[in-house]
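> run fold Helix-turn-helix domain-containing protein
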Amino acid sequence: MDENFKDIHKAKKLLEINKMLTKSLKIEEILKSVIIAATELIDVSGVFIIYLYDEKTKTLKFAEGQDVNKEAFEKIAFAPGESIAGRVFQEKKSKLFTSEEEIDDYMKNMTAKNYQYYYKGIKERKIKSTFVVPIVNKNRCYGMVVVNNFSRKNIFTKEDMQVIEVVADQTAIAIDNSNVYQDLKEKNNLLRQSYAIHNQFYELIIEGRGIENVISLLEKIIESPVQFDHEIKEYDKENIFPIVRGNERLGLLKFEKAFNDFSYMSKIAIEQASLPIALELVKNNALFEKEIHFREEVFNQLMEGISDRDLQHALQYVKWKKDWTVQCMIMEGKDKSLWQLDKLIEKERFIQSIERISQSLGIDSLIFTRTFQVIVIVPEPKKNRLYELIKQIKIYWNNMEVIYGIGRETNIKELSVSYQEAIRSIGYAKHHQMEIVEYAMLGVERLLYEVDEDVLKMFMHDKLQHLYSLDESFIETLQVFIHLNKNHKLTAEHLHIHANTLYYRLRKIEEALDIQFDDEKDWIDFVIAFRLYVASNKKDG
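> ok
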């Protein structure tokens, strides 16, 4: 009857423990309940210790205990496989020890540091018998319950261990529920914080406070310096966070430490901050596009000719004076456009870089775009100033292949003339694979763009038709002879031929063309026709 009564008592106690464990979701309360329950269920007096596995340190740490020096135990950290607790944690099976020899064997791999605190923690007593029960749920071991006995007269039994196993199973479920609750609580807290951060940045967007205020708020939240960079350069990838719109990178945030070293909430704040920055950049780009369009309208007015009053307004905008001269330059990509059409910020960055370079040289240029060309109108163009501008652009955009067409210097009312010349120059540069073409430096080549092509062909045919019957050496002789300004001696030396041979070739050409090189009109007509012939052949090639 007594044994049956004990069993019924334990069964009732276990039910009470189950109710007690399910009432609380706080891990500290759960563990204290386990200790109380264990002392009431075990007939043999013992010392109860609970270890829990720490995911961060990957060690078993003291969580709760009875009749121990808690301060000493809190300094213990068992590795999986170390001592009795570590072995049971790895095997996830309960273990009963009834002899001191077996206990000592299992504890012999305990580190000296852990043993020092452990021996102090159990108040320097010798363990006579003990058992360890893992706290396991769904094959996950959360820790273990250790029950120690320091009396030879009272030895633990397998039944004692089985009772604690039931408690440990209930404890594992309670811990699992507590973890789920704490996880939900933490996520809910993070959600509230995230929402609060979102609202702060949203207010900045509504108020239009600008990127500087967004950065300032972000620095306060993450408690770390932040730098925004418009330019896309090579940085330590771990210390940056890109500001992205679709497939385009608009800029980046730079930090003093790696992005992954920030806390979860700091990362959320950084991500939240990137949205108003991206919106601000898109807004600024829209304003920039309007400004570029307005500049083009001003240019069109100057091109078309306007009243003195409207001209004065236009000149006030560009900060020019009425009696100034201007010069037009057109920039275009050699093999591809200067910016990609689907890249919102690329065009803005390129134009703004040209503006900064121009300003650094003291030039108040009017800069705008037409399709994929950049138009630069330079006022009061001093000698070599345009070439210095080109030089600085090439240094800044050293990986970009750009061609430049330059019109002549004109007064403001004849700006359209310089513009049309720049267009012709850019066309000539593209056709002849040249980097820079200045219209004023072109010679007879201009006629290829100014005169009807049929008229040019007719003129060349009339003047040179009989030259085509002569062999290549005569053509080469003429090229050198013209280049050296009819100097017979230098021409012969350059061609490595005798003076008589040169004389023969020149006479042969004169006879074929029925002209005299000494006759000024014949010579001018011939040189023009021949230069057109050479230029035309380059064009065809």
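The two ends are 118 Å apart (CA to CA).
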